[in-house]
Amino acid sequence: MDDLARTAFIRAAMKAPYLEREEELELARRWRQRRDQAALHRITVAHMRLVIAMAARFRGFGLPASDLVQEGHVGLLEAAARFEPEREVRFSTYATWWIRASMQDYILRNWSIVRGGTSSAQKALFFNLRRLRARLARGQPSDQPRIELYRRISGTLGVTEADVALMDSRLSGPDTSLNAPVGDAEDSANRMDFLVSEAPLPDEVAQEAIDAERRLEWLSDALDTLDERELSIIRARRLAEDGATLEALGSRLGISKERVRQIESRALDKLRAALAEAHPEAALEMEGA
């Protein structure tokens, strides 16, 4: 929406006639009971000045006024959908909460790429920090410790001092792109160049995948040296995601759990011997198994 269109829209909204209490309730009943679109239109048009006034209160967050008005209109429609005329409350009183909530949600989603203000206390901190800081600092020495100011704000809003300090730092400056250059020269490095990655290097990932595939082949060859019962115990005890207990395997095979332990020990010895003969380095990895 350009400046001329915005100006025309605001003038039209401000010229819309106010609704008398009974007329407002009658329109609300028509919309709620019969989904009368004409009634909804008259209600929303008459209260768009409320949306515009609310948008002006949030202009300090640097977001387009037209977007704030649009989000406020969404809140106005939500209020119309939920309004209960039988409670005999003025629609403007009820709609104010929905308009403000819709705008605040939009601001929290778009003010920064870093998500913040997920709890009600955090939202209160986000929208009231500047005002509280100015009010609490009024009449206080200019060299008042910032930590003392944080303590008083945290007590007022019911959040931690760390949350106040973090929100204050976020509100003190805009987001900085990781692709932004560090210096003024054209060939300056980006901020991203200084981030340290904990992930392994590509060649390390490839080598690990190759080694894992090779070890699986060696183990598969070694397992061929076991008899059927030894193989079933090793698979159940060592190769399954949730290893079976000695007692459970004994019940399944009809032997004691001590006998299962003996068979398992013998099978492991056979595996080590087979791997040591074919691949000595793999046998070392099985030590302690």
Count up the domains.
3
State the helicity in percent bands: 55-70%
Q: What's the helix count?
A: 14
> What proportion of the residues form beta strands (DSSP E)?
under 5%
Q: What is the distance, rounded to the nearest whole angstrom, between the alpha carbons of the first and last residues?
A: 71 Å
| Number of beta-strand segments | 0
Short structural summary:
The chain contains 14 helices and no strands. By secondary structure, it is an all-alpha fold. The protein has three domains: about 5-110, Four Helix Bundle (Hemerythrin (Met), subunit A); about 120-170; about 200-285, Winged helix-like DNA-binding domain superfamily/Winged helix DNA-binding domain (Arc Repressor Mutant, subunit A), CATH 1.10.10.10.
